UniProtKB/TrEMBL annotation:
The keyword Transcription regulation applies. InterPro entries: Papain-like_cys_pep_sf, Peptidase_C19_UCH, Ub_carboxyl-term_hydrolase, USP, USP_CS, Znf_RING/FYVE/PHD, Znf_UBP. It is an enzyme of class 3 (hydrolase). Residues 2-123 form the UBP-type domain. It catalyses: Thiol-dependent hydrolysis of ester, thioester, amide, peptide and isopeptide bonds formed by the C-terminal Gly of ubiquitin (a 76-residue protein attached to proteins as an intracellular targeting signal). Keywords: Hydrolase, Metal-binding, Nucleus, Protease, Thiol protease, Transcription, Transcription regulation, Ubl conjugation pathway, Zinc, Zinc-finger. GO terms for biological process: protein deubiquitination; proteolysis. One of its GO terms (cellular component) is nucleus. The keyword Transit peptide does not apply. GO terms for molecular function: cysteine-type deubiquitinase activity; zinc ion binding. The lineage of its organism: Eukaryota, Fungi, Dikarya, Ascomycota, Saccharomycotina. It comes from the Eukaryota. This is Ubiquitin carboxyl-terminal hydrolase. It comes from Huiozyma naganishii (strain ATCC MYA-139 / BCRC 22969 / CBS 8797 / KCTC 17520 / NBRC 10181 / NCYC 3082 / Yp74L-3).
Amino acid sequence: MSSCKHIDLVLADDLERDRFLGEYAAVKRFVLRASTRDKLQCGMTCHTCREVCRGATFICLSGGCTYVGCWNGGHFQEHTQGGHRLGVNAQNGLVFCFECVDYVAGCETLDIAGVPWDSAMSKQVSLPTSLRRDGLYGLLNLGSTCFMSSILQSLIHNTYIQYWFLNSGHARRCALRDPSSCISCALDRIISECYGSLSERNDHAGFLSLLTCSWKINQNFAGYSQQDAHEFLQFLLNQLHCDYKRERQVDEDKEVRSSSSQLCHCIVHSSFQGTLRSSIVCPECQDDSKTMLDPFLDLSLDIKGQRTLYDCLDSFHRREQLHDFDYHCPRCQTSRDPIKQLTIERLAPTLVLQLKRFEHLTSGQNVKLNDPVQFPLHLDMSRYCTGGEPTTSIVYRLSGVVSHSGTVNEGHYTAVLQLNSGEWFKFNDSMISVVSAEDVLREQAYLLLYTVEQVAATA
């Protein structure tokens, strides 16, 4: 930080000085006092590339200009070619001179000048305006943490998770109330930061706490090496369930005693758990008395040789003849090789599908499968449910895609999510950008998140 001859020239002219100080006071007040959501939309979205938090962003201070430009994309630097060389950092309120390429030490004198703030001053200054978009909250990459960020964004924008935490589903029952020791507390903090419901904000404190807590619980996530996003999703959902049991141990015991067939009432199982029906079927009489019901939070689908998501689901549910299987039909007494059949007994409100892109070879080598798999915006799951010919239409809407680019050892995760407004946004660590539905369908999906949209009887 140094003195700046360019700002000295501005302050030397009384008329220009008053204009400049008025604009600076208004912009600085906005930067320091506005909600996180307003800052993201009005002060941290580059007007050129529309990226959010792409490095530092600056608000122009030249003669009523409301341009906001990013540093990483070089767009504010391009803007200065028109003579607009001074900008305010949208995160800390400091003035930066792009001619000197340094922050201005004279910011202290600007504070001392102390131009009073009132409604008249606010009317003289035109700040960038934009539609408020709840939940647009980038997460810093703290060293190969993109696998965490992509999953957290997916949970933050899940309707059921969102509603649970914003209505204090966890906070009012937790005895720990410590984000560094309780995953649910940390996620509660992140969602509060994301939707601006904290009276005192410390941006990214929730993410740091969740990182710390994850490392304490599972040391496999410690350090700065890339991890698997699917494994982290399973870890998070399991921890949310464990936190629920810890909070409600007495109530949970009562529930189990009163109705052992009841599903767990935690937010995870209420939102994500389905039931898979695995049947061993006699090839002669079709007896399926050897049937098991298994809960699932996601389905893992093979993608080799499959062109579409429906192909993957068809393969998953395809009848398979079992060889070298000790089988004796209890009804017709045959010992022929039986048939294994998987169907879905119960679907969850949120359906998570993993496309198995990582393969472990017999040689011990891990490889990534880059096979393109087409997936729809609307998914009809009727034909995969128990009961043969479907009498009910069960349609899911695509709500999120977690993608992986790169190789097994050097890759990067991003999330593309649909917000309540219907718009699609790409979350790339701290950067957020608007994307089209066509862009979404071109993603190399690793995890697909679908939300139930319609359950109706067919004609």
